[in-house]
Specification:
Blueprint: H1 3-12, H2 42-60, H3 62-67, H4 87-105, H5 114-134, H6 159-169, H7 176-206, H8 212-226, H9 234-242, H10 250-279, H11 292-304, H12 310-334, H13 342-351, H14 361-381, E1 394-398, E2 410-413, E3 423-427, H15 440-447, H16 452-459, H17 464-468, H18 472-488, H19 496-520, H20 526-537, H21 541-553, H22 560-579, H23 585-594, H24 600-615
């Protein structure tokens, strides 16, 4: 049976949807046993098992405990550990996934309520898909997150990016024990790098080599991370800054650790990447890899939680681009922009100095201030869209400089469960030209409120395993739906240019359907993808180039946005038709967001339950 056959089999099992999300790894070399004997109360048994599965997940992914602020009390040991990114670490993940699925299969399903069934289906779907992805024997499989990549390390994949950012943003230091745990993680960071380097060597032996343009970015970024005075590295400065008043010379010890352990590990990874670069070519799609077509079929299924073919996704993108541009055209005409394609006229709008920020510190500060203002405004509007509310605790931060060259334009998420650390809207400010003024309000709604950060706070109220496991199509579909909600709440009523920014954002995501499938299924070149995207959507070449490179290293992920958004709107129309005058969009929004992050098939079940409950 091929890996693609396994993918189809997994998609048809359980919830009939496949998905994978998160970063792999774990310090534990062997999985903790999860045996649990079913009791006479099967729902109690499954709740106990799901709790155990969550704890096992955290053992292998201790960074997740820090991001949620739960690396304390009985989980305090996790604070000194990092995920194991070596081949042995991946073996531990596989064993954990299989053991968890075996234990779930042994449960008596009688008497479960629908919420419990969905909780179990979430785990089954994520874990089954993860095992299918791992059958390809290369790359980084996302189980419990969203980042699937055929490459162990790339311009937006790897410990050299993830771990310093996590240590600075998520690892809290309140006392010397926390500082000691930070130093232990610095030591483990060197092991992560070496584990990835070993997998890079294995990948090279299989002929899995990233395209030359990705490796050039990758090498440029990792050399930034390696270069300069070790004492000035972000990973050193973070602990030095936060322990300045503590005894123990943590700054000096961090410098010693970085010099003796991290720098040599970075050098070894750079050397291996340079060997890959010598063999690289410019073929952008995963079709060039072993079982490449099967890999993309799995990656697309994982990203969309559907069985849509690449051709169907490609056509969906073309259709939606045309529909959205038909809405943009009259607005552009009303602004006096009447000549040329919609994309050409949006390019002209983006070049208008009225909508640009200076490319300096003042301009970057103005971008952050505008985002903060729009977040504050939309937070006050949330009672008009929901009856169940969360605080919306979020801040805006610039991405670290070493990450900017290969990172997406922005991303966001919720903070800790207890609210002590806010959610964040991370924005890439390498070049302010990629952020015309009219594009920023929509960004705030997508990444912060009522988008990713807002939705994440609801997930904190669910069983822990539901907080840990996410699905790309739901996450990104919700974020686009959040943009739509902001429009429905009237944020653009007074400014047609900002409405264009919103519609261009949706069109941007529709273009992704075309470009992602074009690269990986239709064998488009990188240059072809950039040219089509920039001219069709009116985006800058600088922005689009980074986007296309992202799709090359995260196949399928970009397709989750509009697939998920379209399904949420289909379900909304279905609920409105089914309920007639009893339909309340606020209650529909409550049902979608409080039901948690799920495969799209499970979302349909959630809405059917909502319809039946409202009908009485």
């Amino acid at each position: 049976m091929t890996a693609f056959d396994l993918s189809r089999r997994a998609m048809l099992a359980g919830t009939t949807a496949t998905v994978a999300v998160g970063a792999l790894g774990g310090c534990a070399r062997t999985p903790v046993a999860l045996a649990l004997t079913p009791t006479a109360a099967p729902q109690d048994a499954v709740e106990a098992l799901l709790s155990r599965i969550a704890e096992q997940w955290l053992v292998l992914n201790p960074e997740s405990a820090s991001s949620l602020g739960i690396d304390k009390d009985d989980r305090a040991a996790l604070k000194a550990r990092l995920g194991d990114r070596s081949p042995v670490g991946l073996d531990a993940v596989r064993a954990m996934l299989r053991a968890s699925l075996d234990d779930l299969a042994a449960l008596d399903t009688s008497g479960w309520d629908e919420a419990t069934r969905i909780n179990v289906d979430v785990v089954r779907t994520a874990y089954e898909s993860g095992l299918v992805g791992m059958a390809f024997a290369y790359g980084d499989v996302a189980v419990g997150g969203w980042r699937n990549s055929p490459y162990v390390v790339a311009q937006n994949v790897g410990a050299y990016l993830d771990t310093p950012r996590m240590l600075d943003s998520d690892h809290q230091i309140a006392n010397s024990a926390d500082a000691e745990a930070y130093l232990a993680r610095m030591d483990a960071y060197a092991d992560q790098l070496d584990g990835e380097t070993a997998r890079l060597r294995d990948a090279g032996g299989m002929g899995v080599i990233a395209p030359d343009f990705l490796l050039d970015k990758n090498l440029r970024q990792i050399r930034i991370a390696r270069g300069g005075d070790v004492a000035q590295w972000d990973v050193v400065q973070s602990i030095a800054r936060r322990t300045a008043t503590m005894a123990g010379d943590f700054a000096g010890r961090a410098v010693a650790m970085a010099t003796a352990r991290i720098a040599p590990a970075l050098d070894r990874q750079i050397a291996e990447l340079e060997r890959h670069r010598m063999r690289a070519d410019d073929r952008a799609g995963v079709w060039k890899l072993p079982q490449g077509d099967g890999y993309y079929a799995w990656a697309l299924a994982a990203a969309t939680t559907t069985t849509m073919s690449p051709d169907a996704v490609h056509q969906m993108g073309l259709t939606q681009v045309a529909e959205l541009q038909s809405q943009m055209d009259p607005i552009l005409r009303g602004l006096g922009l009447t000549q040329g394609t919609v994309g050409a006229r949006m390019t002209a709008l983006g070049d208008d100095p009225r909508f640009q920020f200076p490319d300096n510190d003042e301009g970057r500060a103005a971008i952050i201030a505008l985002l903060e203002q729009r977040i504050a405004d939309i937070r006050r509007r949330m009672p008009q869209a929901f009856t169940v509310l969360v605080p919306g605790n979020v801040e805006v931060k610039r991405l670290p400089l070493a990450e900017e060259p290969g990172a997406p334009g922005a991303y966001g998420g919720a903070g800790t469960i207890d609210g002590s650390v806010p959610g964040r809207l991370w924005i890439n400010l390498r070049n302010t030209a990629i952020w015309p003024r009219y594009s920023l309000p929509d960004l705030a709604y997508h990444e912060a409120i009522p988008g990713h950060a807002w939705q994440g706070e609801y997930s904190h109220r669910l069983p822990l395993i539901r907080t840990l496991l996410q699905f790309n199509a739901y996450s990104e579909g919700w974020a686009l739906y959040a943009e739509q909600l902001a429009d429905e709440l009237g944020v653009y009523d007074a400014d047609p240019v900002e409405r264009l920014g919103y519609l261009q954002s949706l069109c941007f995501r529709a273009c992704r359907l075309v470009v992602d499938t074009g690269l990986h299924a239709k064998r488009w070149t990188r240059a072809q993808a950039i040219q089509w995207f920039a001219t069709t959507n009116g985006s800058s070449v600088d922005e689009v180039q980074g986007e296309v490179d992202r799709y090359c290293s995260w196949p399928g992920q970009a397709c989750g946005y509009k697939v998920g958004h379209s399904e949420i709107n289909r379900l909304r129309s279905h609920a409105s038709d089914a309920m007639g005058p009893r339909f309340d969009v606020r209650l529909f929004n409550d049902a979608v967001i409080t039901g948690g992050n799920v495969p799209l098939t499970a979302l349909g079940r959630t809405i059917e339950r909502h319809i039946n409950e409202r009908r009485g």
